[in-house]
Amino acid sequence: xAFSAAFFTSSSPSLTLPCKxxxxxxxQTGYCLTPLTVRASTTLDYxxxxxxxKTPNPSKTSSWQWKFKDNYINIYYEEHVxxxxxxxxxxxxxxxISDVSTVEEWRSVARDIVQRVGEVNWRATIVDWPGLGYxxxxxxDYNANxxxxxxxxxxxxxxxxxxxxxxxxxxxxxxxxxxxxxxAAKKGLVKPTAIAAVAPTWSGPLPIVFGxxxxxxxxxxxxxxxxxxxxxxxxxxxMLVSNEKAIESQYKSxxxxxxxxxxxxIVESRYxxxxxxxxxxxxxxxxxxxLDPVQSREEFLELFAWLEGKIxxxxxxxxxxxxxxxxxxxxxRGAKGVSxxxxxxxxxxxQEEYPTKVAEELYQFLRESFESRF
Length: 374
Fold this sequence. Notes:
Blueprint: E1 2-7, E2 15-20, E3 36-37, E4 42-43, E5 60-68, E6 71-82, E7 89-94, H1 104-115, E8 122-127, H2 144-156, E9 169-174, H3 176-186, E10 194-198, H4 205-210, H5 214-228, H6 232-240, H7 244-255, H8 264-273, H9 281-287, H10 297-305, E11 313-318, H11 323-330, E12 340-344, H12 350-353, H13 355-370
Parallel strand pairs: 7-8, 7-9, 9-10, 10-11, 11-12
Antiparallel strand pairs: 1-2, 3-6, 4-5, 5-6, 6-8
């Protein structure tokens, strides 16, 4: 019989989808620190952005215009560096794709890594995807190819934010962002010197639970179309996604492993993101599987296998991920193309919940992979 199944999975909040199924799915070495300086061209007032992330040295931010077809889309990014006479080596950090995706999830990790004293002077750039975070959110037809095109353009742009990173770039991504990066590298569209995949995923929330048969794809299309409509779309988005109770439930059920770490400040900050103009367009694509870079675990493993012997690849799994997402991460343990596999506390956003643990694993990977080369 048909019923409404409430579920929490991947990086999305609760949704209700009419469907036929038998049951619903419910669901961190010692080092030294030096003063940190953050460089960029414009400043954002973080007192209006995040309750949780105020520091003595507030971040400065910049924007970059991405040309997509006939549109110019303002892309938000920030850069973290420390004062050093040595030329920097570049890290690009890509946020996990979700309805509340934001550069904030990587900020503590970026600051931790760039402050460490070692053989390499690291510089970290964090960028919001188009349609998410503090980037513009135009009404375009978002899919995995669009996001891959953005990533490629951002990395390869002449006079772009990381234009000095040729043959000198490590990409770190969470969730779908990691898999999109690996796919672009396999195609030869980007040439990072290493990739770190943190809690990597490849399937959107609805497909991972309800599958991809023709009947379900029709339902996904109907839901996606409804969410994109002018009036009804906002009503549905506000009811299912853009409310504080839904966001709190999302974080406590699968985004964070420890519900005590879900503070009112986190919820308020993420709720504000869902109120930005155009906020519902990309999440509508993510929830219904249009942003999935592959369609099966076999394809997922093949992407990583192609990197075997070419570049170092770190996979960071988490102890408390949802069952289905955890199974995909575990499939990469010992898999071809994966140079190192580690596990840290957390669920789908360990870089935000346990930044010290994630930063330590990432820094050790960077040391093992690069310091002896310079």
